[in-house]
């Protein structure tokens, strides 16, 4: 697993994908921070992280779209399948590499909020809750991206497919809010919604159920990716 992790980290920065992601993520994050806090003279962090949640749904597929699809296109997939690394180790190694790049970019962006402590009363619990929530959601998005990438050798298709699945998971909560409060289906849709559960953390509350939800969804998509390659190995 460590060998795959190092290989993936190296590939992000020997090519352009890692640099493109970092430049876009840091630049947009900085601009959003300036607009939602500095220009508006506000210490509220909720607007910033809500926007970054939506933005992450679009930009994170940059990190995952080539993870497996490029292996298939370049015919290096068989080398992975016949290597001494286990399939779960291979998948987790790729997941951790993409997650490291994302988490590093998010933490660097979040350092901007240190400046607010000098000029305003920042609610530390809310700030930490938003950071933790976005880190959890990022793990879910990356796991989805790896799974979609394992299904195709076309990187563009992998990126579009990932965005589509993520938007569905984000949108079910909005659909649930359109239903009457008495409808049981509304409760189910809100329970499945990434965005609805994000709001609990965003308000500064630690929600164990939401933590389990995010970890479970990420684990399910990692497991599905492992199953895809288990089947390919024996076929």
Quick one: biggest sheet? Answer: none
Mean pLDDT: 85
Low-confidence runs: none
Portion of residues in helices? over 70%
The shape, in one word, is globular
**What is the N-to-C succession of helices and strands?**
HHHHHHHHHHHHH
List keywords for this structure.
mainly alpha; 79% helix; 235 residues
What does this 3D model show about the protein?
- The chain is globular.
- It contains 13 helices and no strands.
- By secondary structure, the protein is an all-alpha fold.
- Helix 2 packs parallel to helix 7.
- It has one domain.
In brief:
With 235 residues, the protein is mostly helical. The protein contains 13 helices and no strands.
What's the SSE blueprint?
Elements: H1 2-14, H2 17-38, H3 46-59, H4 61-64, H5 69-73, H6 77-81, H7 87-110, H8 116-119, H9 124-149, H10 155-177, H11 184-192, H12 194-202, H13 208-234
Helix pairs in contact: 1-7, 2-3, 2-7, 3-9, 7-9, 7-13, 9-10, 9-12, 9-13, 10-11
